[in-house]
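Sharing a chain and its predicted structure for anyone who wants a worked example. Both blocks are below, sequence first, tokens second.
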Amino acid sequence: MSVGNRTTAWIASAVTLGVAAVGCATDPAAEARDRAALHAALEAVRTAHCPAAPPDVMINGGGSLEPLVANRLLLCGYAHGPAATTGQALVTDKAVLDRLRTSLNKLGEVPIGPVNCPADTGAKVLEIFSDGRHVAELVEKLTGCQVVSDGNHDGWVGNSDVGTTVMGLLPTGSCRAVWRAAPCDRRAAAP
């Protein structure tokens, strides 16, 4: 390789690295939004007070649906759209949290191709797991094709116990608002 070609190659490499480094720079406005979202989620769990609607962008810092070893979980039920909050529950029982985390992290991928699902009413649950400093937020669709998502990862509820476990932790009225009486009155899913 000639000196001229090496110099050109070196300059091209330096420019490429410089562009890559600029592309990795953080956006102060995005950092401020992230801090505000984290504070709001931590405050929701601390006060056991659900937001009026699930967040548009969820916080999750791991490679699985529930990457924390949470010591608290705030469940916020929304029956038919975000404005219809139907109930909330604060879960602190370690055995329940461990079981739910294990079940969530075992969920398979959403099937590809046609799938027959029951009617989707828009009912969902916001699940905010916290260890006191960090949060992992999930939204679980309770009707239609039931999926749990953190915005980056989706888990197919399918035949797992995730949906019934979550509904068993919410007040009975929340369950009835979404699923009517049959599975709610049994409360068999509640640990």
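Comments welcome. The first helix runs from residue 3 to 23.
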